[in-house]
Amino acid sequence: MQQDMGFAHFLGQADGLGQFLLVVLAVMSVATWYLIVGKSIAQWRMRRRARAFLAEFWNATDMAEVAKHIDRQGVGDPFSHLTHHGLRAAEQYRNRSSYRLVEAGSADEFLTRALRRAMEQDTARLEYGLTVLASVASSAPFVGLFGTVWGIYHALLNIGMSGQGSLGQVAGPIGEALIMTALGLAVAIPAVLAYNAFARANRLLLAELDGFAHDLFAFMSTGIRAEGRNALPQTLARAA
């Protein structure tokens, strides 16, 4: 009598290693979809706040108005975060003691270091979770393939012990073993697509942020030179 074949039968026949591989794939899938949903919502909110902040920034009359906006709304996107660091750097430079290495250099150099640190923090924040997606995308097919090989091995052993080697007896167990390969691909494909989408979105955002950093630095440093040697700490200190 021919046995019913399918995923339920495969689960019932899987040994300890097969069940462990299924758990690994399930964990990978849950982590992938958690990152996809979480990062998608976070990026949507961040871009909405960034558009609002940039509109407020370029329509502001001076940096004091920008600082008040940041105090009211908080830092919710890379652009406001970068500006906040610039304002804090101006305040810190005004109150510097000249005894610490971090406070060494001119006002321009001090501002450059502050903006660079802010961009590094934003880059690390944007890249959160991408390593997990890349790891799942590259390893899930091989986990599934290993499960398939292991399942075929046991299927062939059982067929050999039963002494029945007809096509009908072989096709069912081997077909069930191939389910592991399909599961591995089902886990890997969303991770690959999500990684590429997030990496491209981050690359575009960081390019825009880099341009804004240059504009912000040029705006501040031009104000310095126009008003004199000590204009940066005094002007931005009023804004901060």
UniProtKB/TrEMBL annotation:
It is found in: Cell inner membrane; Membrane. GO terms for biological process: protein import. Its main location: membrane. One of its GO terms (cellular component) is plasma membrane. The chain crosses the membrane at residues 20-42, 126-153, 173-195. Keywords: Cell inner membrane, Cell membrane, Membrane, Protein transport, Transmembrane, Transmembrane helix, Transport. It is a multi-pass membrane protein. Residues 100-208 form the MotA/TolQ/ExbB proton channel domain. It holds the Pfam family MotA_ExbB. PANTHER family: BIOPOLYMER TRANSPORT PROTEIN EXBB, PROTEIN TOLQ. Belongs to the exbB/tolQ family. This is Biopolymer transport protein ExbB.
